[in-house]
Write a structure and sequence with these properties.
This protein is an alpha/beta fold. The protein has a domain of about 90 residues. Helix content is about 30%, strand content about 25%. Strands 3-6-5-4-7 form a five-stranded mixed β-sheet. It has a two-stranded antiparallel ribbon with strand order 1-2. A hairpin with a 2-residue loop joins strand 4 and strand 5. The longest helix is centred in the middle third of the chain and has 16 residues. It is elongated, with a radius of gyration of 25 Å.
Length: about 130
C-alpha cells in the first residue's frame, strides 16, 4: 500500500511512530542551553566604541588582563557598582557593570586632562592582585 496512516492514503512519507514520550525540557538539553546562555551573558563584552579606542590607542589585552578586568568587574558588582573605572597597569577602562560592557579605554598620558564623569566606583587592579 502506498504511504498511509491507519489505512488512509497520505501524500507524504510518514515518520516511524516512536512510542517513547518526549523527555521533559530539562532532560532534552534546555538546561544546558540555559547554562551556556548564562555563561555567555556573564562574559565581559567590548562596545564598538571601546574596540575603536583599543585599536586607536594601541592598547592590547592579554588573556591575563581580561581575567583581571573581569575579576575587577565582579568585585565591583558584588558591592553594587553600576559605572566603574578599572585602573589596570596604566590603562583606565570604563565599564557599565549591569551590562558587563567595557565602554571605553584610555592609556595613562593619552588624554591631556583625565576627567571621568558619571563613575560611581573605582577598582585598582595590579598584576600581583590576581587571585
Amino acid at each position: 500500500m502506498p504511504n498511509s496512516i491507519n489505512g488512509v492514503r497520505v501524500p507524504f512519507v510518514p515518520i516511524e511512530k516512536n512510542d517513547k514520550p518526549l523527555a521533559p525540557a530539562k532532560e532534552r538539553g534546555t538546561s544546558s542551553f540555559d547554562r551556556i546562555f548564562g555563561q555567555e551573558l556573564e562574559k565581559l563584552k567590548m562596545s564598538g566604541h571601546a574596540m575603536e579606542r583599543l585599536e586607536a590607542r594601541d592598547i592590547e589585552l592579554s588573556e591575563s588582563d581580561l581575567v583581571r578586568l573581569t575579576s575587577a568587574v565582579e568585585k565591583a558588582e558584588a558591592k553594587g557598582a553600576r559605572d566603574l573605572l578599572v585602573a589596570l597597569d596604566g590603562t583606565a577602562f570604563i565599564v557599565n557593570v549591569p551590562n558587563r560592557t567595557v565602554v571605553t579605554a584610555v592609556k595613562a598620558g593619552d588624554e591631556p586632562e583625565k576627567v571621568f564623569t558619571n563613575i560611581d566606583s573605582v577598582v585598582f587592579s595590579n598584576a600581583d592582585s590576581v587571585e
